[in-house]
Design brief:
By secondary structure, this protein is an all-alpha fold. Helix 4 crosses helix 6 and helix 8 packs across helix 11. The longest helix has 22 residues.
Length: 233
């Protein structure tokens, strides 16, 4: 990472927020879903499926968990009906911060693979070929559960962010552990700019999560991907 490039991009992002252009980068719907998750998640709730269902809601869009050929929420609800105690333990392990994050994510995917096999052996539906729990969906669980620790993951967005900040080591395959580290570092730089944070807080509505969150650095990453070259002109 090159400090001068990071500082220049942060200055550009702040200028862009001052002009009120952030809503053309990406709507703030994830901030609402993060608030809803924070208000409803309870690992001890029973039935677990009902609690999980209430955690993933949004008044604007469901695209995080329900879009064409991508339905992770529906499949997790099916898994929770099939093996509620096992699904409970899956999330408990995923959110166990004493263990390596990369291992936790990979094991969560492995558990979903196993549940899918069991599901397919007992039921035949249009959803029986994939559980849809990839790095992207699992990173949303982590980001919603621990707003100050994790950022939602998309490989293309992560790769572009590294290019824009001058990294010499550009990944050619998924590296979610590195993604979390880099985004947390960038968030620390963003937090140091009090004027930028004030602009960020001003754009949030009562429906949005109001506390410190690494969703801010994801918004910044979308700015780098979709807006930076236009602003530079």
């Amino acid at each position: 990472m090159q400090l001068k490039k990071i500082q220049a991009h942060i200055a550009g992002y702040k200028k862009y927020l001052q002009k009120g252009g952030e809503r053309t980068v990406r709507p703030l719907y994830k901030w609402e879903s993060q608030r809803i998750w924070q208000e409803n998640w309870d690992i001890n709730a029973s039935p677990f499926a009902a609690m999980y269902d209430s955690c993933l809601e949004n008044s604007q869009t469901r695209r995080i968990w329900n879009r064409e050929n991508y339905q992770p929420k529906k499949m997790m609800l099916a898994f929770a009906e099939l093996q509620p105690h096992f699904v409970y333990s899956m999330f408990e392990e995923l959110f166990n911060e004493s263990k390596d994050i990369g291992n936790r994510v990979d094991r969560f995917i492995f558990y979903c693979d196993q549940l899918l096999k069991e599901y397919k052996s007992t039921r035949r539906t249009a959803l029986d070929n994939d559980h849809y729990h990839d790095y992207e969906m699992i990173s949303h669980y982590l980001a919603f559960q621990y707003p100050e620790q994790y950022t939602p993951y998309r490989f293309d967005l992560f790769k572009n962010t590294l290019l824009q900040i001058g990294s010499r080591d550009i990944p050619t395959a998924n590296d979610i552990s590195r993604h979390f580290k880099v985004m947390k570092t960038l968030h620390q730089f963003l937090q140091k700019d009090e004027a930028l944070i004030a602009l960020h807080q001003k754009r949030l509505l009562p429906i949005h999560y109001q506390e410190k969150s690494l969703l801010l650095v994801e918004d910044f990453a979308f700015y780098l991907k979709n807006i930076f070259h236009q602003v530079k002109k």
